[in-house]
Amino acid sequence: MSIESILEEKYGMNIPDAPKPGGIYSPVRRVGNLLYLSGQTPTVNGVLAYTGVVGRDLSIEDGQKASQLCALNLLAALKSYLEGDLSRVRQIVQLVGYVRSAENFGAQPQVINGASQIFADLYGQAGLASRLALGTSELPGGAPVEVMIVVEID
Length: 154
Prior knowledge:
The strands form 2 sheets. A 5-stranded mixed sheet has the order 1-2-7-5-6. A two-stranded antiparallel sheet has the order 3-4. By secondary structure, it is an alpha+beta fold. Helix 1 packs across helix 3 and helix 2 (60-81) crosses helix 3. Strand 5, helix 3 and strand 6 form a beta-alpha-beta unit. The protein is built from 3 helices and 7 strands.
């Protein structure tokens, strides 16, 4: 079963077109067989689908849904770079997630689980990356989460 079929069947999601960069940077940078993907926020068609502070304006579940959208946008950038061939992914090496957090909110790992679960479901054991989930006071545009990944390809 293809990566896109699994995503559609399990989550009812389709990979969109790759988001346009919001600044002066490369969405994907290759070093050897590693791809470093720039951070993605939970946008749909270039508009933030979620804004606010997790633990104050948004629940953990909302944060997880937002981090799933970040993963979807990362897959879009990856698919674009790989010219549509997501089967070239050997493993997700690292995932770093930032959560715009309320004071005394400590459930950042639970929020970032939304993104991590998608990669695990799509790539199995190879989707279980080393991970960092951090709290922060601000993110671009008022986004509640931002996620970046490092991917090893064939």
